[in-house]
Amino acid sequence: MISKKIEENKKLILNSFQNSSDLIHYEFEAGDYTKILIFYIEGFIDRNLLDRDIVKPLIHNKENKDIKKIISISSLSEVGEIDEVINEITDGNVAIFFDGKTTAYLANLKNWEKRSIQEAQAEAVVRGPKEGFVEDISSNRNLLRKKIKSNNLVFEDYTLGKQTNTKVSIAYINGIVNEDVLNEVRKRINNIGTDAILESGYIEQYIEDNKVSILSTIGNTQKPDVVAGKILEGRVAIFCDGSPHVLTVPKLFLENIQTSEDYYIRPHFASFLRFIRMLSLVLTIILPGFYVALQLFHQEMIPTVLLVSMAESREGVPFPTAIEAFLMIIMLELIKESGVRLPKAVGSAVSIVGALVLGQAAVQARIVSAPMVIVVAVTAIAEFTVPPLTELLILYRLIILFLGAFAGLYGVTCGLVVLIVHGLSLKSFGVSYGYPISPRDKEGLKDFIIRFPLCSFIFRPKAIEKTNMVRNIKPREK
Amino acid sequence: MKKYFVLLILIIFSAQILSGCWGSQELNTLGIVTVTGFDIENDEVVATFEVIKLNPSSGSSNSDDSTKAKYVQTRGKTIFEAVRNENLKFDRRIYLSHNQIYIFGEEFAKKGLTNYMDFLQRDHECRETAYLLVSKGGKAYEVMGFSPGAEDLQGIYIGDMMKNSKFTSKLVAINISEYFRNYYDAGIQPVIGTVEKKEKKYEKDMELKNKDKYELSVEGGAVFNREKLVGYLNGEETRGYNFVRDKVYNAIIEFPSISTGTDSISIPTPKVGGTINTNKDSQIKEYTVVEIAKSKTKNDVEIQDGKLVLKTNVNVKGTVGEELGNIEISQEKGVYLIEEACSNEIKRQIEKVFSKAQKEYKTDIFGYGILFHRKYPKEWEKIKDDWNDVFSDAEFKVNVKTEILRTGLVNTPSNRIRGE
Predict the structure, then answer these.
(1) Size of interface A-B (CB pairs under 8 A)
(2) Residues A280 and A350 in one domain
């Protein structure tokens, strides 16, 4: 409750903030000698606007009693609860108390520091929009609204985290969205009871279907055009304040090998690229394990000439093949990790050292064999073609390597079977992860490894979309 | 529940098709064998292995004097024992999966090939696709130990020659599984390849550079009656054999040109800037060569008036590869003449090898017995034990039809035209 006495309000708010030094309060008298108290957080607001549009009119006002006629700010609102006032102050609003009034006024003069919109580094494209999301949620929502200029685009706001009070909003297109998924998202977001949401990754881990699975069933992207494309297929997007990564649910396995560019370039090359991605997905998981299995168990499967050159490169290498492969993979991950963490200036030095040490010196010193370097290099290159799956690929590659080293191709096959069966059994917000392979859908297969021409995409994915199926009317049916 | 069931099925299924052997072996513990030779000396099996010597690749190009192979010779009462005894002499375990060639000494083959061959069939490491060869007139280890070809390894060298058999059809490329298929069937007797060491008779100056004084020849075939070697076929006879067995692919047939003289068919087409050379030196033998593009053989057996008749129909399609005689190929009649001459030549070769098999070796190497078995199963039961005798008395009818598809890029034989 807001007290009539301005002193009590002041004490209450200062106490609730424990006299935090970035909370600024300013007391003055209006033209009619009413005491006025202003609260705001330093650096959150535009001080010029505050002085010009709030303080100055109030001081000069003598006769007008209606506050809204004095303060010419469109976002001015009146609240009666002290708790809400406190919350709004932390969100960058200016709170104005008048002596003798049981309501306070809130003016939105937010003007905090934020990153300008830049290219999304992790999802670079050759053709297509370059802009990426930033940390500020309202900018992100604007970016999406710019793609879908429709009153059907709906944002629903939630505040999560008892301490952080992070603003989270879910976006969907009314009339296209799968209602079951939407209700499930609402339910799961409301169930989050944590006190801190610092990044959308927190939300992802709280609302996941299968929290122990190695496969992620929630997609994330930094590009507004990708989010637009996804929610136009009936998905729900989750924006989180402070994160440039926007989540999209439900996620299908298929989305890992899709990029936004696939739809911007013509279908032939897009299909080829998807084939390459699928191939490198398989390669990067099984290649080290497969190679070790062949070398240790199935020498008869290797052509004689290749076997000779492989055996020659193994001559003089002190470690068993499995250890050698493991060493190389760990070295690769070391270089990658240090390259990410180090400042850019030092990063290039690390990569040069890594390339020389791994590529040349290790082979010349007979610590590892040359084909092993090639195998690991191929896996490393292949891994970058499917960025959404990187976490899975690195871990599962080691598992397959282990199985291949102990049980040969039998182990490799078992490892793959377990992964595939597990993947097909997953559900993401009630939608089968393996769609369109399992459940099989002929329409959905048009957008699988071979991307059909856009005009042949008559229907939205059957697994996600339930109500508004048709997205593309054939010209002759117009 | 259902998904675990599917998982179980898949694992069991993959275990069936991909059962690798439990127990791994590092590559640098294996002695990879490319050729194995078997001989018999004093009732002992003498096994000779060509083991690849692995030169650690140093990144730079290999020096020329590095040898690619090492040779190990071991003895034992059986092949398996000889293979195992290798470990007493050599530091790496013999690994036979990449062995492409088995060479048997002549003595071994005469005593009976299959007496000792069980191991080669039974052991999982031995490839059934390895080629079998008999060392003609000598021991197996006598032809081993050098590789006069482009490949440093003798195994790959001989294996490549076996794979190139389609270009001449003058050799027999037969692997273990085919050999046993023929061996087990009373209606056919196996013929396997031969390998022979010959002294080089050319390149007097080259000899200094080339250390090999000898060369290998895989021409011809070795005829077996059951497990025992009974004789050899030369290159031309082997080709006749391959015709009957329908194993000719890209061979060439060379035969003397039809002497035409002033025949009406040799009307030369006048060419710009050239005259027709009619005074040809008669000393030079004139040949026509037909390259076979496709050959199809159909064999049949028939009992006519109580007598067994063996029939072979060969259909050859080919192109004119060389014409040294005096035939104008642009004329349709000339082509017919070549077709007829080619048919006659193939017929002659087939009849030659047939009479050799019938009269000299008394062995059905062509597999007419299989056809007889199929066509007359009741009669087969009576005669199957002495089928080879029945075969030797049988009448033989061979019919060859040649079709020339293309005649090459020129019409007039090149030696018919002289510049002005």
Answers:
(1) 94
(2) yes
Chain A contact present for B123, CB below 8 A: no
Domain of residue A322: give its range: 265-428
**Contact by Cβ (8 Å): A223, A120:** yes
Query: What is the predicted ipTM?
Result: 0.79
Residues of B in Cβ contact (< 8 Å) with A296: 24-26
Measure the CA angle with vertex B248, ends B242 and B252; round to 5°.
Answer: 110
Q: B32–A307: do the CB atoms touch at under 8 Å? A: yes
> Could you tell me if residue B11 is inside a domain?
no
Quote the number of domains for chain B. Answer: 2
Q: How far apart are CA B186 and CA B370, in angstroms?
A: 8
Residue-by-residue pLDDT tens, chain A, 478 positions = 788 888 888 888 888 888 888 898 888 888 777 888 999 998 888 888 888 888 888 888 877 777 888 888 888 888 888 888 888 888 888 999 888 888 888 988 888 888 888 888 888 888 999 999 999 999 999 999 999 999 999 999 999 988 888 999 999 999 999 999 999 999 999 999 899 999 999 999 999 998 889 899 999 999 999 999 999 999 999 999 999 999 999 999 999 999 999 999 999 999 999 999 999 999 999 999 999 999 999 888 899 889 988 888 888 888 889 999 999 999 888 888 888 888 877 877 887 887 777 778 888 888 888 899 999 999 999 998 998 898 899 999 999 999 998 888 988 999 999 999 999 999 999 999 998 888 888 888 888 889 999 888 888 888 888 888 888 876 665 4
Could you give the CA distance from residue B158 to residue B153 in angstroms, rounded to a whole number? 9
Q: Does A307 touch chain B (CB under 8 A)?
A: yes
Say how far apart CA A465 and CA A452 lie, in whole Å. 19
Q: What is the pTM of this model?
A: 0.83
Do B213 and B121 reside in the same domain of the chain?
yes
Q: Give the angle B45-B47-B51 at the CA atoms, nearest 5°.
A: 170
Outline where DSSP puts E strands in B129-176.
131-135
Is B314 found in the same domain as B191?
Answer: no
Q: Is residue B211 part of a domain?
A: yes
Could you tell me whether strands B252-256 and B287-304 are parallel, antiparallel, or unpaired per DSSP bridges? Answer: antiparallel
Range of the domain at B217: 28-54+67-233
